[in-house]
Amino acid sequence: MSIETPKGCVPVIEVRGLSNHFGDQVIHEDLDLTVCRGEILGVVGGSGTGKSVLMRSIIGLQTPAAGEVEVLGENMVGREEDEAKNIRRRWGILFQNGALFSTLTVAENVEVPIREYFPYIKAPLLDEIASYKIAMGGLPPDAGPKYPSELSGGMVKRAGLARALALDPELLFLDEPTAGLDPYRRRLSMTLSLGCRSGWT
């Protein structure tokens, strides 16, 4: 059965016939999904129901058993790392537990994607960008020189959000973005998501 794209939709994510299995355990079977530009999509379900696996399949970290995945018009299944690099610079990702580098400060963590894709940007501009993104993530200025071990769980999540926003992405993937945040920070997190051209939570 063919899936029609909604009228007026400019697809940024298209998933067709996606299947993910771990041994005998079926996580997804023949899943179809279209996300349109400007759309904010929340995937809701209990723990272990495949939300993170779906995100990992879309961003190319999980090779599905079957199916096709396109992000921003680019095929994501079976691509070589060098081929996928140019498409990955167009999105930001907040992983479930922040996934910060423990040996880097918060500011240095935020600078990682900038250094990777724009190596010609040097200090002090790099430091200025990092400071701006840290503020956008809802952290105080003195959080920049701190290490992840010096932060609370909620602050780690906000630092991860700051890094996800580092490249002003077209597409934002947020894995449990509000877990561990107080009500104010939850609203802030979702407001930042709305500011992105497309979002995934």
Describe, in plain words, how this protein is organized in 3D.
With 201 residues, the chain is α/β, with parallel strands linked by helices. Helices cover 32% and strands 22% of the residues. The chain is built from six helices and eight strands; from the N terminus they run E-E-E-H-E-E-H-E-H-H-H-E-H-E. The protein has helices at residues 51-58, 81-88, 106-117, 125-136, 153-164, 183-195, and strands at residues 11-22, 25-36, 40-41, 66-71, 74-75, 91-94, 171-174, 198-200. A four-stranded antiparallel β-sheet has the order 2-1-4-5, with helices on one face. The protein has a four-stranded parallel β-sheet with strand order 3-8-7-6. A hairpin with a 2-residue loop joins strand 1 (11-22) and strand 2. Helix 3 (106-117) runs parallel beside helix 5 (153-164) and helix 4 packs across helix 5 (153-164).
How are the elements arranged and paired?
Layout: E1 11-22, E2 25-36, E3 40-41, H1 51-58, E4 66-71, E5 74-75, H2 81-88, E6 91-94, H3 106-117, H4 125-136, H5 153-164, E7 171-174, H6 183-195, E8 198-200
Parallel strand pairs: 3-8, 6-7, 7-8
Antiparallel strand pairs: 1-2, 1-4, 4-5
Helix pairs in contact: 3-4, 3-5, 4-5
Would you tell me the structural class of the helices and strands?
alpha/beta
Residue share in β-strands: 15-25%
Helical region count?
Answer: 6
The global form is globular
Q: Care to give the gist of this entry?
A:
This protein has helices at 51-58, 81-88, 106-117, 125-136, 153-164, 183-195, and strands spanning 11-22, 25-36, 40-41, 66-71, 74-75, 91-94, 171-174, 198-200. With 201 residues, the protein is α/β, with parallel strands linked by helices.
